[in-house]
Design a protein that fits this description.
Blueprint (H helix, E strand, L loop, with lengths): L6 H34 E4 L3 E7 L2 E6 L2 E4 L5 E7 L3 E11 L5 E12 L2 H6 L4 H18 L3 H6 L1 H16 L4 E12 L2 H43 L3 H13 L13 H26 L1
Antiparallel strand pairs: 1-4, 2-3, 2-5, 6-7, 7-8
Length: 284
Amino acid sequence: MPQVFDETFYKSFPALILLVLMFFELGAAVVVLVFLALMMVRIIYEYERGIKFTLGRYSSIMGPGVNFIIPILQSYRKVDIRIKTVDIPKQEVMTKDNVPVRVNAVVYFSVKDPKKAVLNIQNYTYAVAQYAQTALRDIIGNKSLDEVLTNRDEIAEEIEIIVDKETDPWGIEVTGIKMQDVELPENLKRTMAKQAEAERERRSVIIKSRGEVEASVNLKKAAQTLAATPGALHLRTLNTLNDLSSDQSNTVVLALPLEVLRAFESIGKIDEILNGKKEKKKLS
């Protein structure tokens, strides 16, 4: 059997083993270093901010871009600084004049101080929604029904001022509050509909009466003009007959002036007098 490995090989074998082990250790170290480097890198988007903690204590605010943290020793929490929307569910509130209404609204807010939003409040979104709900009930409870229906913008501004003042220590800025809907009881809706209908009828009667007054004034002026002009009334009569003749379905009733009827009455009396004188002459 031929000798494959000589004495020199056996002497250098431990060195080869050592080289192989060193190579694998170097590769493992590189892998570990790459893994640690990846764990250190954190990407923060433009609309976010990062709150860095070192051994549990606040350290700094991480801006947008590439940031580095020390694994295990440091941690961070992202905060979205964009405007957020929170819906306030419908609340049944009793107004100042003892009318139950159901009102809902929407709150717009953003984080202006990420440090306060993380350190001073546990869940700022839930806190803002709850405080806005409470303020909504308090404000509407001090308003009458007519004020709630007609002054929505003013009520929303009052709620916004109260909520913004309360949430300022939390690092929250309330940018707007809008009332979406005011729901009334069904019986009150019917009553208001009747009231609105009666108001419209009252307006229509007033407008109609004003029109009749204006028409009577104009008719008076027209009558005075016709009376002052000889023959004007006959021309107006003929013009009216001409307008009526265009439609054959109309029935024309010609009204004569009272003076004409009296003239005919006078002619009849004259004939009776003359006839009476003739009969007396015949008898004589």
